[in-house]
Amino acid sequence: MRIAYFYIALLFCTSGQAQQIVQGTIMDAEKDIPLSNVQVTIKQDKVILQYTYSDEQGHFKIKGESRADNILTFSLIGYKPVEIKMTEIQDRILVKLYPQSIVINEVVIKAPKIRGQGDTVTYFVNQFSSDRDKTIGDVLRKMPGINVDTKGKITYNGKEINKFYIEGQDLLEGKYGIATNGIPQQEVGTVEVYEDHQPIKALEGLFFSDQAAINIKLKEGAKAHWITTLDLESGLPLPLWEIKSFTMLIKKNQQNISILKSNNRGHDLSHECETVTTRGFFNQDDYYNQSQDIDVALPSTPSLSPERTLDNRSHLFSTNQLWGLKNNYQLKGQINYLNDETKSEATSKTIYYLPDGSYILSETENGKSYQNMLTTNLTLIGNKDKFYLRNTLNTEWKWHRIDLMTQNDKNLIQEKAYMPSHKVSNNFNLVKRLRNQSISFSSFILWQSTPNTLDIFTDEKEKQIQSVSTFFLFNNNHAIYSFTLGKFILSLNGGINFLLRQMDSNQQNNHIPVEGDLLYNDIQTNYIRSYLNPKIELNKRFLILTIQCPVSYYHYIYKKEKQRQTMNYGIYSPSLKVQWNLTPDLKWTILGGILQDKPDEFLWYNGWIVQNYRTIRQGYMTTQKKNGKMMNMDISYKNLSLLLFANAKISLQWNNEKYIESQNFINKNLIVRSIIPEKHLSRQQLLQGEVSKGIDFIDGSASLQGIYYTQFNRMYQDESLMPFDTQLFSLFGKLNGKLGDKVDWNYSISYSSASLNVNKNNLFSSKKVSNKVGLSWSPFSKISFQANGEFYRNEIANDKFKNIFFVDAAVVYRINKKYEISLDANNLLNNRIYDYTITSNLSTFINQQQIRRRELFIHLFCQF
């Protein structure tokens, strides 16, 4: 708190000066023509406070304080600089620059890779791409400051983006993996990053964002006509195939992207249509996530790419359409359909650490997953300077079945899990701007039904049936009034929401030693919540201070058969955030607050639910609300002239827990999970940082990312309390570059270590190292050779390591710019088993996963 008081005092001691918007035109004094790319800066004692560049018409616009020591400077190579005091500027200005001869030594001029103009950072795609890159996603991964994770989520300098635009339009509504995995990179001219982006125009100046948006700018030849790419692959052993069709039409008032994909070669399509952007201004409280009662899943390999292990038959269709309407309104529609069949086989050992030693459960699993999913989205939006309207109707229909055979030390068990889910939601948002104030209203409603069942068979022909049917209706309505008062922005967010939830569960042919009344549940959990969130924000040039204190009141009604119970909770979570903009490119932020939350009503049932053949979950009335404290601190820096981006973050959290998780083992093969009411303190610490930089002499870029996470907690194992802590440390580095016009290469290395300690005694630790290298050599204009190598070294027991090496290769013949044919070979060494370990709460999981065998493909790519 002393730090917070210091910055509050510093804030009010800072002398306030009038903010001034300076705009005008820059001309060549002799030719009387506009000058573009003139650097316009506001300096104070040679320190740059703000900067921008003039556009193609010579226009510029910049904001700064009207002080006598603030100097407005105009500079361009080949012209004499001009300086003007900010206090001498009254209205729009006309600046004339006179040519100036300069004598320089002979130099080689290279086109810039990145350019900054105000809050926009522009990446020139041709400076980062190569012939090996097919989609814009391949190029984004090479750009310093931009990260794309395995699921396609994009971050910019350490923070997730909040919008993904194509030619300034948000066609895909957060499902931008469709675009990054499909848009041909040769059709993209630049990638623009809008820093501190507020997507709602009517809220600009009232609600600030520290997230960025990405805008894909196409080349002129890629606009206003259909672009289609087609990938066809057929391979051995038969039948292996992959079909990828991507079509795109980008016009001023109409956009369409449609894809059709099918494969059985290990490419996971289930993530292609996931929403990966954060929810933004309105929806922070709107989505209600329900936990999964039945927990049956195929064995997977989180540390290896799916292309190595996934045995699938997947089909995906998606079409996305945007229509421009009158008066700047838009109508957007999406339809996505996924049909996915997956097989998996693995052998594993799970070590459970008990008070009297350890228990090892050995299993061999072989199963199939069948999934059909249909989602639709229809959105009407009007985004104007004084008015914002948005209504979104979503539906999601999912049919999911898993058949899993498990052989353990005693029995052969067959599990059949049916897990359908049906969702319908509507989200309505409205904003009205009145000069220095705004009024906002939002209404969200969600209906969901999940009628799930689990059938368990053993080799003794015993059968057990668990059914869990859940229905809930959730609604949230709130209004926000905001206005400015000098440097202050005040807002008041108030609303009301409710939840209606019913859960029925029943077990048949039960062979578990529990009482009969614990075999079923018939409950209703309803609440109504009213809340108020006052917020005060003080925004100055170098310092942004935000104070808010959300207060909520919950009234619960819990019904079980003929019993009825009511509970009331008051929740408050005050927080203080200080953002210090040391320079336009160096920002430091600290956030601290008190955490309070309602109890977990999804655990409110008295009976037992069979989650899988080895795990039973017992419900409990967790009537105590959650309490804790948190502090986050992060810093970000960029230097565009050096192509340098860096960020670091520290996150600390302390939780005053009222309940402790418990696991009891029955006959060493059945785990009963429950909750025990007991107070204790848990802690979490997260430190992470990243540095990325463009490197001219290799014509590429490099990045290094590090994460350290530790958790201190406690848990009951067989009725004995066991305090424990887990630690995770990882480093990931990557490097890419070119050798002339013939060779394109990339290299990455990762290291991670995990450990589990009980009462400060180390029970298990493991280390993992991986190296990946890719090389593309084009000795001839139409022929190139490509090779990839991957090496993994995993510790599966103390000082016992497993190594595996993968080699892939391809020969590519480019018929012309639009057509190419290649011969691809995957897993040339024909490795079949991958070993890895995962450390969790008082357990360690050691797995041997089946790998896809050696495969040969003939691949045809064409673009129309």
Q: How would you characterize this protein structure?
A:
The protein has 864 residues and is mainly β. The strands form 5 sheets. The chain has a 33-stranded mixed sheet that branches. The protein has a 5-stranded mixed sheet with strand order 8-9-14-15-13, with no helix packed on it. The longest helix has 12 residues, at 2-13. The chain is globular.
Task: Give the helix/strand layout.
Elements: H1 2-13, E1 19-28, E2 39-44, E3 47-53, E4 59-65, E5 70-75, E6 82-85, E7 93-97, E8 114-117, E9 120-124, H2 136-140, E10 146-148, E11 154-156, E12 159-160, E13 163-166, H3 177-180, E14 188-194, E15 213-218, E16 227-236, E17 240-250, E18 254-263, H4 306-309, E19 311-324, E20 329-354, E21 357-383, E22 387-407, E23 412-418, E24 421-434, E25 437-458, E26 463-485, E27 488-508, E28 520-539, E29 543-548, E30 551-560, E31 563-572, E32 575-583, E33 586-597, E34 608-612, E35 615-618, E36 626-639, E37 644-666, E38 670-695, E39 700-717, E40 720-739, E41 743-758, E42 761-777, E43 783-797, E44 800-814, E45 819-826, E46 833-840, E47 843-850, E48 855-863
Parallel strand pairs: 1-7, 13-15, 35-38, 37-39
Antiparallel strand pairs: 1-4, 2-3, 2-5, 5-6, 8-9, 9-14, 10-11, 11-12, 14-15, 16-17, 16-48, 17-18, 18-19, 19-20, 20-21, 20-47, 21-22, 22-23, 22-24, 23-25, 24-25, 25-26, 26-27, 27-28, 28-29, 28-30, 29-32, 30-31, 32-33, 33-36, 34-35, 36-37, 37-38, 38-39, 39-40, 40-41, 41-42, 42-43, 43-44, 44-45, ...
